[in-house]
Design a protein that fits this description.
Elements (H helix, E strand, L loop, with lengths): L2 H8 L2 H11 L8 E6 L8 E5 H4 L4 E4 L2 E8 H14 L5 H14 L2
Antiparallel strand pairs: 1-2, 1-4, 3-4
Length: 107
């Protein structure tokens, strides 16, 4: 799933619950973390891992694949809500761009 697709779930709490079910995410995890495969960009696939699995490392390797942490899921959801409240008619693509820009330049 690309970041733009994930943002569509983060925009809506009902859809986010669907994502939890779809990916069988552990709601009891201390934190769920968004990682991007290989590098942080719009073309990279996104994955969600439990913090217990990744130990919150910024770079994580699993089954020979390398991942880079974007944000904790909860933080990303809050950022998406802020962008929606700040900018009228902002698209999921534009939000994904802003998340990446923030992570690269400010985080």
């Amino acid at each position: 799933m690309k970041l733009e697709d994930l943002v569509k779930y983060l925009r809506d709490s009902v859809k986010l619950e669907e994502l939890y079910d779809l990916l069988k995410l552990n709601k009891e995890s201390e934190a769920l973390l968004i990682y991007m495969e290989d590098q942080i960009n719009l073309e990279s696939d996104t994955y969600i891992f439990e913090i217990e699995q990744t130990d919150d490392y910024l770079a994580y390797e699993n089954n020979g694949l390398k991942f880079v942490q974007l944000f904790p899921l909860e933080m990303a959801q809050e950022m998406v809500e802020e962008y929606i409240n700040m900018y009228n008619n902002i698209t999921s693509y534009e939000i994904a761009q802003r998340l990446i820009e923030y992570r690269i330049n400010d985080a």
